[in-house]
Design brief:
alpha/beta; 16% strand; Alpha/beta knot; 2 domains; Trp Operon Repressor, Chain A; three-stranded mixed beta sheet; elongated
Amino acid sequence: MVPVLSLCAAASEKRSPNGSDSCDWLDWLCMRFDLITIFPEFFAGPLDHGILRRAREEGLIEVNVQDLREFTKDRHRSVDDRPFGGGEGMVLKPEPLFEAVESLLGQSAGAATRETVRDRKTAIVLLSAGGKLFNQETARRYAQLERIIFICGRYEGVDERVAEHLATEEISIGNFVLSGGELPAMLVIDAVTRLIPGALGNEASSQNESFSTTEDSSRNTSHLPRTTGHAILDYPHYTRPAEYRGWNVPEVLIGGNHAEVAKWRKAAAIEKTRRNRPDLLGRE
């Protein structure tokens, strides 16, 4: 396994009582992400900036990268092969993926004749264009877990037995096709990390932004149109200068009346949702 800036409690010079650098003794505040990929070097940059870097340094998350080619058995370190039935492209083989996950879990992933008990606090996520659409609700659910193992697809796809019998979920980040699952995995990690207590510093930041639920936020939207899943986009934001090239900040935001500001933000959030994401709105 190739640990790319793998940090947890030890990152902020904290150590377990026995002096180890493990996050096990702090598992209540440390989430582990494992990334299985043929391009381990891809993740070095994104992990070293912003919220992800701070979360790692403060021991809130641990990120490890596993080179899939370490689980190949031929001299060419082949991870893919031609699809049965013909067709374009190459398909990632099941053997190295199953063995990589089993190595990370420390147990068998099972077989057709032998099932295995899965840890409900661990998700094995296959990133692919054919998966269920990732959204904020999924991010909130993932933030309750202790560990997520990401399988980054490549080439034409991944052997379907991986999706059916190894992964606990198959996730897509949108209705488009990318070259691989590495970038989607980073997006999911970022979205989940933001929801881990302490990652943002100000917990209200994750409660009052796009796709936050009415239950999560302090906004009373009872007088506003119903939304699917009670999720709407964030309200528009403005900062100085108050006038720029003839475009002015809404007067209500600089008037000092907090009640009126709150009312304006509620209405503006609904209007922006109607304009940019009408699919989120239910019938009025």
